[in-house]
Amino acid sequence: MKKISWGTGIVIAIIIFVVLVLVQTIYLMNQKVDLVEEDYYKKGIEYQKDIDVQKKTSELSEQVRFDFNGQYLIISFPENLSDNKISGEILFYRPSDSGLDIKLPLQTDSLSQIIPVSNLKKGFWRVKLRWQYDGQDYYDESSFRVE
Predict the structure, then answer these.
(1) Angle at 47 between CA 141 and CA 134, to 5 degrees
(2) pTM reported for the whole predicted model
(3) Which helix (H) or strand (E) holds 52?
(4) C-alpha triplet 108, 114, 118: angle, nearest 5°
(5) How far apart are CA 139 and CA 25, in angstroms?
(6) What are φ and ψ of residue 7, in 5° steps?
(7) Alpha carbon 18 to chain centroid distance?
(8) What angle do CA 16, 22, 26 make, to 5 degrees?
């Protein structure tokens, strides 16, 4: 068996190292990257508004309830509100894949909205509810896991 000189061994080690770094770089550059928000810079600037809206929402005498029973998500608004003055939108946010996010208009017939979750992919979901009532903005969120 022919012995390899230490100089040749070092060159082979460097070549293997460079090839591994190139393969890793090419692999990582082809991975899908989802940002938390598409316009995260703008959202970062407006974050104080979100904090103020969340604080106002927490000061309501009754809170919005999110009930998840495995098949439906039921969003219930406080009884002291009038259902025809509530408007807004519901975002089903999937942290692991922004392509699965779903935005729905808020439609309250009797201070609640029932949403079937059978079309949602299994896993962790966060519900972000932005709603307006009587000219005021409110925000609530909850999370659940579809099994």
Answers:
(1) 60
(2) 0.71
(3) helix 47-58
(4) 145
(5) 41
(6) -65, -45
(7) 37
(8) 145
How far apart CA 113 and CA 124 sit, in angstroms, is 21
Helices (H) and strands (E) in the chain, counts: 3, 7
CB 83 within 8 A of CB 77: yes
Residue 81: what residue type?
A: L
Q: Are 114 and 131 in contact (CB under 8 A)?
A: no
One DSSP character per residue, 59-98 reads: TSSS--EEEE-SSEEEEE--TTS-GGGEEEEEEEE-TT-G
pLDDT tens, residue by residue, 42-88:
888 888 888 899 999 999 889 999 999 989 999 999 888 887 788 99
Amino acid identity, position 60: L
The total of other beta-carbon atoms located within 10 Å of residue 111's CB is 16
